[in-house]
Amino acid sequence: MGREKEKENPSQKALNLLRTRLSNPNFVFKPLSDSPDSNYSKLKFIISSSITEACNNSILLLGPRGSGKVAVLELVLSDLLQQYPEAISVIRLNGLLHGDDNCALKEIARQLCMEHQLLFSKVASFDDNSQFLIAMLRECGLAHKTIIFVLDEFDLFAQAKQRLLYSLLDAMQSVTSQAVVIGVSCRLDVDQLLEKRVRSRFSHRKLLFLPPSKEDTERFLEHILSLPKDSSLPHSYTVEFNGRLKNVLADERFKELINTYLSFNSTIGQLMRFLFQAVSYMDLDVGFLSLENFKTALSSTQRQPKSECIKDCSILELYLLVCMKRLEVKEQNSYNFNSVMTEYKSIHDFQTSDNYAGNVCLRAFEHLLQRELISFTDNRGHNQSVEFRPVKLLISPAELYHGLKSYRSCPAILLKLIAR
Amino acid sequence: MATETPKKQLQSPRKPKQSLNNLKVQSSPLSISLSPQTPQSLIPPQAPPRRSLRRTSLHFSSTPIEDSIEYEKSDPKTPRKAVEEIGKISGQSRKGQSHEERVKTPKTPKIPKSKRNDENRKTAKLGILGEGMVEAEVTFSSVTPEVLETKKRKRGEDKTVIPRAMATRSSKKKEKKRVYYKKVVYDEGEFDVGDDVYVKRREDASSDDEVPEMEECRVCFRAGRSVMIECDDCLGGFHLKCLKPPLKEVPEGDWVCGFCQAQKLGKYVEFPEPPEGKKRVRTLREKLLASDLWAARIESLWKEVDGSFWFRGRWYMIPEETACGRQPHNLRRELYRTNDCADIEMESIIRHCNVMSPKEYAKANDEGDDVFLCEYEYDIHWHSFKRIAEIDNDEADDEHADSDEDWNSSKEPDSGTDEDMEYEEESTRNAQARLSTAHLAANSRKGHFFGLQKIGTKKIPEHVRCHKQTVLERAKATLLLATLPKSLPCRNKEMEEIMAFVKGAICDDRCLGRCLYIHGVPGTGKTMSVLAVMRNLKSEVDAGSIRPYCFVEVNGLKLASPENIYRVIYEALTGHRVSWKKALQLLNERFSDGKKIGKEDDRPCILLIDELDLLVTRNQSVLYNILDWPTKPHSKLIVIGIANTMDLPEKLLPRISSRMGIQRLCFGPYNYQQLQEIISSRLKGIDAFEKQAVEFASRKVAAISGDARRALEICRRAADIADYRIKKQISTVNSSTGKDIVTMAEVDAAIQEMFQAPHVQVMKSCSKLSKIFLTAMVYELYKTGMGETTFEKLAMTISCLCTSNGEAFPGWDTILKVGCKLGECRIILCEPGDRHRLQKLQLNFPSDDVAFALKDTKDLPWLAKYL
């Protein structure tokens, strides 16, 4: 027993290490930050120059979800906080939480008060808070302090009147302040959302975050998955682990597998999620990563919920679906339970088996609604009973056909019916 | 170093009372010995608390002070040593702040102070409880020898020359009359409010008697008329001819004397000894920098009832006296202005000195020896620095030290006449304000923000001072939107028009209110021009050529709701905060009914409303009210409205447009020559841009919007890019000689960044399935000619494309997910994914862009066929 436990120990440790790494964005994005072309150094240059040269800037970080916008920003901010410990205060807002101007301004005031150990009052009005903000901007500017506003989900701030953005940017161009507004958004056209007077005041620095290139991805995989030489893990284990990993990474099959995954979504965030899954499949008894782990992970990510749903349906439900499909083929675009039942009956006029009563069919129909294989066409008529509300098929005929084909014991008649 | 005693004692007239009360309670009334627990022996004689002397001489008579004074006597001979001492002390004091119970640690020189600190804190607390208690008459005895017996104040106490007099003023004084002056001629010197003066520190040092007007040469010890040069390190003066080798003329740039140079190299240097029988006389400047003197700024001047002249001084500090001591980047002649004030008798003024802002200091070269530089204000409670605001000096001061309120009388234009100061009332009001401060939040109401003085750097960061700006950095700084340009080119005609309008309205005898509507696209200098005109007018008012008026500025976008504008206007006019309904009523009374309450109300009022279109409500009553006032006979109101849309008056109700639309002024977008002029006027003297680059930027912006902000931002960004490139080059390759000039390429990059959505790049780098998805969208578009398609159709197309080109079809749900991801980035517009096959899709960018982006995809060469 004891021996087994000892043997298990390094692999458990290795697994923990890998998982910690994968869930730590700092570790993931650090190696990408060296080159001068990287977003890290560009962003750092812009922010630090507005600290040292006492100027205002506004930056947009754009890129698809999972491309590491916030992660790189946090990396830069933590570095700068170390470099200029006193000169920075960071205000973080999220469009999902503070989309309302009033509430956003309140939150800014709160965070500023927290930062400078001032007393904050909850009841202060919009005007008070905006005046407070301007006063703070000026005071901090005089004290050589930079306020960094991080606006996550920036597109949600760029709605309606945009009072917050206007007063922020207007203050930045009229008061002697040092402030940086950083907008983070996955919408590429976010600057078009800005109102014209806000846009005119925005300084339009944009940093684009793109998925890594193929070579980068490979370097990346090795960097993340190989164990460090100088850790508490036994040396022999580390060497063997890294050796095997190298074999796996060099394998053609593995490359194909990764490509399949990346062809779906190539951002770093997604890759991390995939690797996390693969690492978690690692067999602790063996203690090494194998190709099988990645294969399992891939198959678990590429699920087709719709066709799996069909596999779970009963025969009656399949009948109903097929009936709806037939109705659609007949160009009857709006149908409800009753018309489906008519179709169902018409099928059974010349076919005998599988004939169920109306209330049973209704149960099956409701079940289909719950599985979201079908849905109501509109939200009107809540007070109508289910039978009379028009419904729509959410699954396409092609999918349905494939589903039926792969169904364990699909009645041959159904396949015939759907084909006709 | 006197930084540890809380200021409150000095500034609010109430606090001292409390502390006095308590002092009386706590200790014997005759001579308040400082700290009974502190044995004398603990205080080492060689390290007196310097600045705190001012205070100790006031409150306390105790041996430590005498000790220190003895030391002071020996001080003058060793000025340099003194500075070192101070450095040491300040180091200790920094340490000491964190430990309150330093009483127990022997050998720290500053025990008395920390003790006192504790005491004060206690008294402050007790004071609130025991308010309205007995007003005690506490007599103070000062050890400072009294020299000037000429004018005595009527006080039951010994007079102090260097008092923190506010603290000692007892309540009965407040009822008496005082006469405030703006200018006082005293002892053959003329002293204005706002002047800087040397203040005597004590009266015992014999060297104070002979104050040399001229500095002596450090070599020959004679003043003489011949040209002297100042060492930039030790500030010693040298005759040009006394130097070895002698200089013919004053060299350009920094000059360091031979002694300092040798000292820097680590050699032992022997300074020339003064000739026998003649002591080296220190100038006032030297004494100040060795903290044997003080400097203060006169905040107000007055004559007491007994005829003695007093002034309220705001202390200056030398870097050694601050909590962080002298920093390497501090200049030799640097001073800090504190927020610490005291009432000082005019007797103790020695003479004027000159404390300048950095800009003035840079220009000053021949102003003599008494020139100092002051850039920062030092908060003695929080030990923090803050730059002194350049433009609105006075207002900023009031904000920092809100306790100066009762001294504002000195700033009023008629302060030359006698005036009753109602101190009692003032002080009680102040007291209430103080009391409630504890409960007031920083962002709370009434327009006062509490605790802002907390903000400040503990140390002035090095990069601010030591960094020498490169050409590009200077260019970036001048291109900043926030930097106010020296002149406003290209808007002369419009400014003249505004000027004529405002002047006509003000100078008109009946002052018939009028309205001006200014419109133009963003970034064409509307607000800036109006503000510039108002500045010009203000200087004319100061010169006395036109009548005074009041100016109210409101921004429609910064109001929480349109109705709030009444409140804001009323507050700006009277300083009172009321609800908007009440404010509307009061304003109506004032403007329509012509009811004047205060004497200020008689002035014409100019109301500038920025972003006027935001005030449009459903029934447009706000705009109507505001625009109706000027038509009333006695309103004396002039409204200037600014908005973007040209036809705003036409969009409004006829009764409003008839009131607003008469006089209009249009700010057209800038053309490229104007933009070029704006940029190059800012860049004057800085050779950072290629000429074509500026032209390119301005042409581009003129073609798109004519927005000056955009043009400036493009140039700034271009300079940024160039700067980045150069700095990276330097850090990687040392030898590279990149030209530090902004070229067309950088401007082009900046323009691309500003005006183009980055979708092409995103499409180029997105995943394989996304590319197929987009291709299918384009294909579908060509095939059907319809912009919109459903997911079902698209998925069929994709599966066709995949099968005919040997790609594996990934499954419907995967494709749905891919589509949603693209929709998130707004490359396509799509409905939410839960509509599945019924989801409607549409390309957000022209199909040509997609074709351009995907034509040369390496791993999917077949895409080009379908594009």
Automatic annotation (TrEMBL), chain A:
Transmembrane segments: none annotated. Residues 59-205 form the ATPase AAA-type core domain. One of its GO terms (molecular function) is ATP hydrolysis activity. It comes from Theobroma cacao (Cacao). Residues 221-402 form the Origin recognition complex subunit 4 C-terminal domain. Belongs to the ORC4 family. Component of the origin recognition complex (ORC) that binds origins of replication. DNA-binding is ATP-dependent. The specific DNA sequences that define origins of replication have not been identified yet. ORC is required to assemble the pre-replication complex necessary to initiate DNA replication. Pfam families: AAA (PF00004), ORC4_C (PF14629). It is found in: Nucleus. SUPFAM superfamilies: P-loop containing nucleoside triphosphate hydrolases. Keywords: ATP-binding, DNA replication, DNA-binding, Nucleotide-binding, Nucleus. GO terms for cellular component: nucleus; origin recognition complex. This is Origin of replication complex subunit 4. GO terms for biological process: DNA replication. Its main location: nucleus.
TrEMBL record, chain B:
This is Origin recognition complex subunit 1. Component of the origin recognition complex (ORC) that binds origins of replication. DNA-binding is ATP-dependent, however specific DNA sequences that define origins of replication have not been identified so far. ORC is required to assemble the pre-replication complex necessary to initiate DNA replication. Signal peptide: none annotated. The keyword Ribonucleoprotein does not apply. Component of the origin recognition complex (ORC) composed of at least ORC1, ORC2, ORC3, ORC4, ORC5 and ORC6. ORC is regulated in a cell-cycle and development dependent manner. It is sequentially assembled at the exit from anaphase of mitosis and disassembled as cells enter S phase. Binds unmodified and methylated histone H3. Residues 261-389 form the BAH domain. Residues 8-25 have a biased composition (Polar residues). Pfam families: AAA, AAA_lid_10, BAH, PHD, WHD_Cdc6. PANTHER family: CELL DIVISION CONTROL PROTEIN 6-RELATED (PTHR10763), ORIGIN RECOGNITION COMPLEX SUBUNIT 1 (PTHR10763:SF23). One of its GO terms (biological process) is response to sucrose. Residues 395-407, 415-425 have a biased composition (Acidic residues). Residues 26-41 have a biased composition (Low complexity).
